[in-house]
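> Could you send the Na(+)/H(+) antiporter NhaA prediction when you get a chance?

Sure thing. Input:
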Amino acid sequence: MEKIGKIASIKREAAIYKLTNSFRWFSEFGATGGLILFFISIIALVWANSPFQNFYEDFKNINLTFSVGSFVISKGLILWINDALMAIFFFVVGLEIKREFLVGELSDIRKATFPIFAAIGGMLVPALIYYLFNQEGDLRNGWGIPMATDIAFALGFLALLGSRVPVSLKVFLTALAIVDDIGAVVVIGLFYTETIHMIPIVCAGFIFITLIFGNSLGIRTPWFYFIFGIFLWIAFLKSGIHATVSGVLAAFTIPSKSLVDGHLFVKEGKSLLNEFEKSISNANTTKNSQILLTTKQESVVSTMETACEYILPPLFRLEHSILPWVTFVIMPIFALANAGITMQGDFFSSLYHPVTYGVIGGLFFGKPIGIFIFSFFAVKLGISKLPEHTSWSQVIGIGFFAGIGFTMSIFVASLAFANANHSLTNSKIGILLGSFISLVVGMVVLYFQKKK
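Output:
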C-alpha cells in the first residue's frame, strides 16, 4: 500500500510498503518472497540429503492433535502445513481474485481477455503434454501439476530485470497467474477429490451461506469471518474436498464496499483537518504540543481514524495485513517441508521417468507455447489486444516465467500422488528442473529483448 506525504516517511515500520500503486505493492512482496523461497528450497534440498536426513523426515511427520471434547483432528506436521497453512494462502489468493475482478486488471473485460486466454492456453497445453507421456494407470493423475504458476517466485526473479521489463508485462504476469490460481482451485476441487461425504458438504454450504448473509447484513468485523471461516475449513476437511478450497470461498464473502461515499469522505476529511488546524493555531506552542494532543485534537483524530476505517473495505485491510505472513512465513514453511527431495542412487534414472519429463515438458514447453498461441489468436480474432509497450517475444518470455510452477506445482503433486511416493518424488524432480530451466530461459529472453 502506498504511503503519501512526509508524515508517512517519518517512521516506516514496514519498508516493503514503499510502492507507488497497488500493483507495485504486490509486486514488491513477490520480489522479496521469491528470493526467500529460493534459499529455503536450497536449505530443504541440502537438509534432505545430509546426514541429518532422518531429522528432516521426523520434522515433517511430527504429529499434532487438536481436540475439543470428542472432536479430534490429528495430523502429521506436513499435512497441517498442506491443509491448514495453505488454506490461509488460498484465502489471500481468493482476496486477490475478488479484488482483481472488482477494480484490477480483470475488471475491464477488454483488458482481462488477454491474460484470461493466455492463462487458458497456459493450463491446457501443459496438461496435454504431460498426458501424452502418462496415459496409463495412476500416472495420469499428475496432469494438473504443470498447469500451475508460482507467482511469488516468478515475480521475484522478474523484478531482478528491473527497467528491462515494462510495468505492463508485470501486470500481465500477475493477472495471468491469478487466472491460473482460479484454474488450480477448480482442478483441486473437482479432480483431486477421492470420496465426498455429503453431511460435511451440507454443513459447509450452510456455513458459506451464513458468511454471505453476514456480508449482506453489513458485518465487517474480521472475527466473524475468522470464526465461521474455521468452521468452513473443518467442514471441507471432513468432506473429502481439499480443505484449501474453503479459503477461497471464505475470501469471496469478505466485504469489499466502503461504508462512506468518496466525496463525503473528502468533504468530512477537509472539515476535520480544518478543525485540527484551528486547534493548533489556538494552542500554545510548547514542546509538549508535539507529543500531547488536546481533547479537541484527540476527538478530531479519532473521528478521522473512524472515517479511514469506513472508507477502506475489509477486503483490502485483510489482504494487506495477511499477505506479509503468507509471503514470509507460510510459503517458506511450505517450501521447507515439501521441496526436500532425497537424491538417492536412482536419481538419474528418475530423469527418464515419464512423470519427470512429462512435468518438465509441460512447464518448459507447454506454458510458453500455450500462452503464446492462445493469446496470439485472441488478438488476431479481435477478442483482445496486446498490452501497451509489449512485443510478442516478450509475451513468450513471460510464458517461460509462467513455467515456474515450483510451490504451486508441488502442492498439486502432493494431491495427485498422495499415495504414490515414487511418483511424487519424480514429479518434484520434474518441477524443480522444469521451473529452473524455465527461469533461466525466461531471464535470457527478456534480458536481451530490451537491447534489441
